[in-house]
Amino acid sequence: MYDFKYQKAASVADAAKVIGADGEAKLVAGGMTLIPTLKQRLAKPSALIDLGGIAELKGIRREGNAIVIGAMTKHVDVANSPEVKSAIPALAELASHIGDPAVRNRGTIGGSIANNDPAADYPSAVVALNATVITNKRKIAADDFFKALFETALGSDEIVTAVSFPIPEKAAYMKFPNPASRYAIVGTFVAKTGGNVRVGVTGAGPCVFRWKEAEAALGKSWNGDALKNLSVKADGLNSDIHASSEYRAHLIGVMARRAVAKAG
Amino acid sequence: MADTGIGAAVRRKEDFRFLTGKGNYVDDINRPNQAYAYILRSPHAHAMVGKIDTSKAKAAPGVIAVFTGEDIKVGGLPCGWVVKFKDGSPQHEPPHPVLAQGKVRHVGDPVAVVIADMKAQAKDAAELIEVDYQPLPAIPTMEAATKSGAPLLFENVPNNICYDWAIGDEAAVDAIIAKAAHVTKIEIVNNRLVANAMEPRAAIAEYDFGTGEHLLYTTSQNPHAIRLLMGAFVLQLPEHKLRVIAPDVGGGFGSKIFLYAEECILTWASAQVKRPIKWTAERGESFASDAQGRDHVTHAELALDKDGKFLALKVSTQANLGAYLSTFAPAVPTYLYATLLAGTYTTPAIYAEVKAIFTNTVPVDAYRGAGRPEACYVVERIVSKAAQELTIDPAELRRRNFIAKDAYPYQTPVALAYDSGDYFATLDMALKAADYAGFGLRREEAAKHGKLRGIGLASYIEACGVAPSAVAGALGARAGLYEMAEVRVHPTGSITMFTGTHSHGQSHETTFAQVISDRLGVPIENIDVVHGDTAKSAFGMGTYGSRSLPVGGSALVKALDKVVDKGKKIAAHLMEASEADIEFKNGAYTVAGTDKNVPFGAVAFAAYVPHNYPLETLEPGLDETAYYDPKNFTFPSGTHIAEVEIDRDTGEVKLVNLVAADDFGTIVNPMVVEGQVHGGLAQGVGQALLENAVYDAESGQLITGSLMDYCMPRADNLPSFTVGTHVTKCTHNPLGVKGCGEAGAIGAPAAVMNAVVDALNAVGVNDLTMPATPEKVWRAIHRRLAA
Ligand SMILES: Cc1cc2nc3c(=O)[nH]c(=O)nc-3n(C[C@H](O)[C@H](O)[C@H](O)COP(=O)(O)OP(=O)(O)OC[C@H]3O[C@@H](n4cnc5c(N)ncnc54)[C@H](O)[C@@H]3O)c2cc1C
């Protein structure tokens, strides 16, 4: 780890000011991605601005037909939240399978989506539930938020403050974990909200994406069998020692069918 | 005394300190004025090393010194074993420098060391070292290394072949195979493994200018061997000026047997900089520098007669040794492997040849089981394949070929002579525990849910209790393999026992104390077992090859015999009786046929306060040392049975049951044995389903260089194990023990893979290589279904 300054932000505005002024400064949330990166000397920020002391970024609340989760809410709190469990049980379950207990007790939803790791779980839920990412500057629709590998719509001095998830009629997440890291090799989140079906796929590609053919088929008939004759092209999907693109393409279908069955 | 003696499930004495965080590991130790070392390692798999400019690093904050191969003019790391080519010429033994001398041969090869006041300073400064690397083509695979015209790792090692060794009569075996009613053939890849002990390697070296004594704390399974190898071969330091301490060690699995460059560099450098120096590996360094395990490619053929009797076995193996010869490396794929190819069977003719190959990868050496898991895997996979081809039940085929219960001692065609065993008993025990008879129903039930279910057996044998020194010497070992024990009875009758073995998870402090408690009738709280310090234990060869109890425990029994015998003389004097009439039992000396007795404690006291004592004929004190050189190897054996269920859609293999029925001879502590078996099974399952060290074929980079990609088994990968033991005693050591540390890792991989292949038979697949990862299994199913 290289030397850096550490600063605990008092407010979102305070944090935004620092990162706006110093392009080399970085926000730190749970640190579950950032700290290992620093330890391996893969990043050399001038300063870490800790969001951990900002009360307004924490917590889960119901707002009308949506569940709003503060950016600094830890995975374990989403997994155990009575509100999430009753309104969007699929989201609570997703959170309960992220990493291991240590990771779930530090990692945050804001950190996860801001980082946009191609194998992270949350992005699939954000996309499939058509959530809105709320920042210190604006509201960003899910479809506009995740741009590319480790890339989001966030500006350099923009901070995720919360994510608002519309409550679906049906939803489920099926994850095929990498046996070593337990990140998603493929994770498929299916959701039916206000009659609309969305299918978010993570792990398979360089960035979370929607499987639109599946959405159309499930829109006509909410049944795993509706996906039987669909397949995803392997071109452009990730390929590594754990799973080739062809295998990932196949798993997307399997996980989607299972997710639909699980959603009931 | 039965409650703390042999056979009792005594709670581990060492657990209090481990469970309360009071363990004392190398990294817990800090010496006054200690500096820190950081090792700069090669980022290239194969490169010439030109100029190394350390000037900027030397000027960096906190830096005390920077050394390269130019500075450290010491001997290379020695190899402890010589294996011969088929023509009798010795193996190639290229130099193994502690810091690169003009060339690097694997990613992680040490190039320079930075010593600084703080660890972070050392690491910062290392980035300032400029190394002029001229990369060479990397040859990380055996295939690439043996291609004609392949680049050479060492100029004088033609074709990168360390040795090409054989055992048995090839022509005789070929003749049998040519005429046999049936021949089963198999191609086997025994995947490379990374030991991944919980505690990474670490060392602290300190030099005392007053006495000229070097002190090395290190994470070692055998501190005396480290002292001998490092002192005599690398640094030219005499034993009396070199003390090696291996305190609590957090797992070794073989990877901490060997002498490593860092131990030598630190010991040498601490005298140069006149400060104690500490080094602790990061996990990434463990991946890049701890000796790895396995990595064989094998073709085997088993000849059977029409009734399924084994007639001959022919095995041809290539063994990847990595970039250098590690301490025991040559012995692992030869004398610890090919000599086990008879397995538990009467196969009358066996021929095996082994080509050992240098590649641009981390050196390979003994890893839990060391050669024996590889042998078991060949034999047990080919036997199950033969059973499938001949449609004979795999348990029945094994029974037909097992060595009979009354055939011991049994001389195999591959050098070893088994002293005892009952393979039928452990097979039956395992079949029963696994409800083998009910498997058909479970398979049908699984099929209803679209799952493929399979069951697999492995009836393994291993050679443990290494080793008779004369035999080992004749086979090329450069060391003896006896063990030492000292029993120091204190004046008040409490006992400190010193062993040359080392416990890094094996529970010696409990097991050895139980043997003493059993024999002397002393409460176990009054006994301490000391290990891991060359200044305390007189000598020792350390812990590996399940040798501690068979060899170290036998030395202990001999020392206890001496204590008891000396005590008899004292007791005879105290009771004014003839020595011949003295008996020792239940912790007291009695005069036979009378009620006269003196407790052991009183005898100990008399030995140290010899007021009424036969001083003319007997020395005071009660402190006895014994060395024990085993007469033979010990031969633990047993049957492991695995049951798996495969998800056809994803290829995921779920291990639903794992049974181990083992014969370890006498059991001193059944709870400790169970723990050893559990750990071994978990590692065996890891090899079969999860673990694989993968090097990039082009660059030679270790792709699975972290725990994010190298998949260690975790609790949720494992079912609740069913384990049991059946005892046939070892006939040639005093306790009748055989050793239990490696069995799990030996039997389980073959059992699990036989189960996987059995499940896949339903879709026409009859072979698969380890690890059976989801995609590999899915592809196997898919290919068959598509065809
Ligand atoms: C061993 C291990 C296993 C894991 N397994 C999984 C898994 O199975 N599934 C999964 O999805 N994830 C997994 N993770 C990732 C983990 O869940 C975290 O979500 C992730 O590390 C990021 O969250 P964090 O709070 O730790 O963010 P940090 O590491 O603190 O930050 C990550 C990045 O996001 C930025 N950032 C943080 N908060 C904000 C914000 N509010 N606004 C803008 N930018 C911000 C930071 O500047 C940084 O660039 C794993 C991590 C580890 C270490």
What does this structure look like?
The complex is a heterodimer of chains A (264) and B (787). Chain A is of the alpha+beta class and 264 residues long. Among the domains of chain A are: 1-51, Uridine Diphospho-n-acetylenolpyruvylglucosamine Reductase, domain 2, CATH 3.30.43.10; 170-263, Enolase-like, domain 1 (2-Layer Sandwich), CATH 3.30.390. Chain A is 33% helix and 25% strand. Chain A has helices at residues 12-21, 34-39, 75-80, 82-87, 89-96, 101-104, 109-115, 122-128, 142-145, 212-220, 245-263; strands spanning 5-8, 26-28, 47-50, 60-63, 66-70, 132-135, 139-141, 146-148, 151-152, 160-166, 170-177, 184-193, 196-202, 209-210. In chain A, the strands form four sheets. Chain A has a five-stranded antiparallel β-sheet with strand order 4-5-10-6-7. In chain A, strands 11-12-13-14 form a four-stranded antiparallel β-sheet, with helices on both faces. In chain A, strands 1-3-2 form a three-stranded parallel β-sheet, with helices on one face. Chain A starts with a strand and ends with a helix. Chain B has three domains: 31-136 and 198-251 and 256-289, Aldehyde oxidase/xanthine dehydrogenase, a/b hammerhead (Aldehyde Oxidoreductase, domain 3, Alpha-Beta Complex); 296-466 and 632-786, Aldehyde Oxidoreductase, domain 4 (2-Layer Sandwich), CATH 3.30.365.10; 483-628, Aldehyde oxidase/xanthine dehydrogenase, molybdopterin binding domain (Aldehyde Oxidoreductase, domain 4, 2-Layer Sandwich), CATH 3.30.365. Chain B is globular. Chain A binds chain B through residues 1-2, 40-41, 176, 179-181, 241-244, 247, 250-251, 254, and chain B through 120, 124, 127, 284, 649-650, 690, 694, 703-704, 707-712, 717, 773-775, 778-779. The site of flavin-adenine dinucleotide has 33 residues of chain A, from strand 2, helix 2 and helix 7. Flavin-adenine dinucleotide is lined by residues 26-34, 36, 51, 71, 75, 98-99, 103, 106-108, 110-112, 114-115, 120-122, 154, 159-160, 181-183 of chain A.
